[in-house]
Structure formats: C-alpha cells, structure tokens
Amino acid sequence: MPTQPGTSNADVRCGDYKAIGGKLLRVRMTVTEDNPPVIQTLRITGDFFMHPEEAIEDLEQLLTGAPLEETVLRECVQTFFAGDVQVVGADVDDFVTALLKAG
Amino acid sequence: MTAQEWRLLLTGDMSAFDNMALDEAILRCVVAGTSPSTLRFYGWKPSAVSIGYFQGIEQEVDLDMCRQKGVDVIRRLTGGGAVFHEHGSEITYSLAVKDDYPGIPKKVLDSYALLCGGLVAGFRRLGLDAEFKPINDILVNGKKISGNAQTRRFGGILQHGTLLCDVNPPLMFSLLKVPNEKIRDKLIAGVEERVTSIRREMGTVDHDAVIAAMCAGFAEVLDIRFSPGTVSDEELALLERVKEERYANPTWNFKR
Fold first, then answer.
1. Which residue among A21, A45, A51 places its CB closest to the CB of B135?
2. Nearest Cα to A24, choosing from A76, A97, A85?
3. ipTM of the predicted structure?
4. Superfamily of domain covering A11-102
5. Domains of chain B: total
6. Facing B152 at nearest CB: one of A47, A51, A56
7. Residue B71: what are its φ and ψ, rounded to 5°?
8. Does A78 lie at the interface with B, CB-CB under 8 angstroms?
9. How confident is the model at residue A9 (pLDDT cuts 50, 70, 90)?
10. Nearest C-alpha in B relative to A50
11. Mutation test of the interface with chain B: which of A20, A84, A88, A94, choosing the one with the most B Cβ atoms within 10 A?
C-alpha cells in the first residue's frame, strides 16, 4: 500500500500474498527512509501453519533491522526454515515474495 | 494385539472460551498421562468466530458486527483460517494424543493425511463420497465439508476441526472482514459453490449417526476402540486456568 511520502520517518507498508500452497501471507511493516529501506517493525499474519507457533515471533525478530533486499530477506527466511520449525502452507519463496510485495 | 482404548467425550454445546480451553486442558492432561488419548465432539453456544493463531483479529473479523449479533470471537491455539461456528450448524471434534503415539507421523502434513483419513472413513460410512484434500480439508463430491487444524505442543498433538451440518455464507461474511464491499457478493457466491454440508449431501442431519460414523472411522484408521468417558476434575481446573490466561483474555485474543 503506498503511503504519503515525507509525513514521518517511518513508512507503513502492507501487502497480501497468496502462497502457492494456498495460504495467505499478510505483511505489515514500518521501514526507514534509507535506500534501501530497513525494516523497523514487522508483523506477518495469515492462515498458514507453523510449528511451534511461537516461532513466528523469532522470524519477525530475525527480519527486523534487515534491509528490503531480496538476497538479505531470503537469507533470513532460509536460516529460519533451516531451524527446528515446520511451516505448512507456505515456503521460503512465498515468505520472501510476500515481504517484497509489501515493501 | 488388542486395540488401544481411547476416551470418547461428548461435551455438547459450550461457549467458545470453554471449548478452546477444554481442548487445551485435555491435551495437557493427555501429555501428562493423567488422561487417556481422547476424541471429543462438541458444539458452540453462542455462535462464535475463531481465528487462526497467526491471524490479525482486526484484519479478519468485523468485531462490531459480532458484538451486535452476540457472536463471540476467539483466537485458537492452532493456525489456519477464520471459521464461523454457528450454533447448531456444526459438529466440532478434537483429538488429543501424545506426540510419540505409535503410528502418528512426525511430519505435520503426513499426520493430517492419517487423522483426516479417519474422518474420510467416517463420511464414507455415511454413504458420502469423501476425500482428503491436502493441506487440511475434506471434500464431499468435490466440495469442502470439513476444515481441520493441528498444533503440536507440550509434547502432544491436538487436532480439531469442523464437520459442517449447515452453511450460511451471507451470515458468515457479515462477520468477517472482506477486502472491499464490492466483492462481498462474489465471495459469498464462491463459498456457496465450493462448500457443502451434511444436510445438503444427505437431506438431513442426524448428529448421533454422524458422531458414531466418525468414531468408527477413527477406530478403523488408528486401530483403536472408544470408551465413553467424562471430563476429569483436573481437566476442569485446567480449563478455568487456561481460559483466564488465554482464551477469555484480550491479551491473547488481540495479540496479533
């Protein structure tokens, strides 16, 4: 969602992305005015599954402070998926696409 | 080998808060070994909207409309999507078992296939042409009749899901947020097309027969038998505790 430029030093950006697995990923973030913008706050919601569920907060934390660049975002998400977590209904590509779409 | 005996619980209609708290209480006691593996059937009174663990409550639910219509709103322990549980229109089940129970796959996707297989066998016993549709749906004649969700925690597996007896898409979409008003009718038509119900498929709904068929289906795929039981005092005490900590607590329901 485009935001009014210059009204604040934190842009709110939102985007929805339907994963290939059929589940919806909804991303809402605030980013800095840097180039590329850096994620300041992040919330990923949707109807996917993740076990353990609380791990979503680890993913959000991992991505906070990351620049909105595909390679960096992909590395973060990949690291998270490689951990002791099962994500059902969306894969690494889906999360990266959702983040980029919102950003 | 004799079949493992599981407890069958029929707890009738309860509030969303009691329902979700009891599912968690049962899971905790099953894991602790103070309750046997359990299959439970229940209903919702008043009607409620449940949202998945990861969903944003304000993103998904028209909270004012729910308040107006006396519909409770609750966040589940399980992921997945928002569900409208209409009083009298749904038979809900939950199944709680230790996560090292013999024969239950470690991979969540595979365990959906196994456990939903019990429901598929149940629907077939009712004479319906049912199939499992990954990730977590059951279809009859190509249309969704059951949605399911699973969590694994405390050392156990909790799977709960809906068996749709009647569907009311216009009411459902009056309670859920839609991306924009222009597509509300289209969404309703889409659900009418993709979702079916036991009444639509069978002409009638015999709750007892549905529950008996599902028990037989689970017994078949898990090689178990059921013995009717009651909720324990420990479970009742836990229900009250987790209801207060979680399900009836705005901090939990509004955490996303």
1. A21
2. A97
3. 0.93
4. CO dehydrogenase flavoprotein, C-terminal domain (3.30.390.50)
5. 1
6. A51
7. -100, 125
8. no
9. low
10. B79
11. A88
